[in-house]
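call fold(seq) -> tokens
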Amino acid sequence: MTTHITTPATDAPAEQETAREAPAPAVPSAPTAPAAPAAPAVDAPATGPAAGSALRTGSAPSPLGRAARGLGRRLRAFAVRSAALVALLALWETAPRLGLVDATFLPPVSEVATAWWELLGNGQLGQHTRASLARSFGGFGIAVAVAVPLGLLIGWYRPVAALLGPLLEVFRNTAALALLPVFVLLLGIGETSKVSIVVYACVWPVLLNTISAVGNADPTLVRLARSMDLSTPRLFQKVILPSSVPAIFTGIRLAGAVSILVLVAAEMIGAKAGLGYLINASQYNFAIPQMYAGIITISAIGVAFNQLLVTIERRLSTWRVPA
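ret:
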């Protein structure tokens, strides 16, 4: 007879719990290398709109800062340009007061400024200035309108240059003021003779510079334009005139200065109004401050007129590469 021995079911979980609670035997582990020091974190450069905003807010100057720097540069440039003029005015003021020169013949610049203001206040300066500007600018405009086309024609067509060359050499070496009595005899003592003498004096600088500019045009550009079958008017428009602008305006600026100088001399001889007449009459009346006031007015007009011509030249020469 077989005897079955049974184990209580409640003992199995206790044994399992005892087995789980028993500590596992320690297993020797291999030696490990010391940990390397952690590398410092490097931020990746920002890209996209965030980077652009950071640059704008960090390094780019503000519009107010740019305007301030631009104003500073203009003020420094103005100070450099005006330093010599300020020194001249200071010398003019102090030399007569210190007795270095006779104040009767060279009064201080403050007295001249007072006389200039008085002439402006009583209307005499404005009257004489208008008369001179009308004559000077009228003769100057006629000279430019005549000399530029004629210079282009003479400079482009060699037979015309060969025909008129000797005649031009004769007249350009004849001083305008030397012909003033001839103009007065032929045209009278009125406005016509004064404007005509200005035209004669202004024609030659513009004419000769225009002829030289056309003759010195880049032959490579001319050949290239001809290879493109450009007509003569288009050739002048695209090649000859743009390359001739600097030399032509050099002559025009010279003519602008000549127009004022010659007119003043002509007004001193025979005129009843004008800055030349004012200077001459002040000398005869021994009104020396008024005389210097007229001279300063002529100088200021010349400087302003030259700056106007320089501005026009820059507008017409925008194709040039700045040096």
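The CA atoms of residues 79 and 86 lie 9 Å apart.
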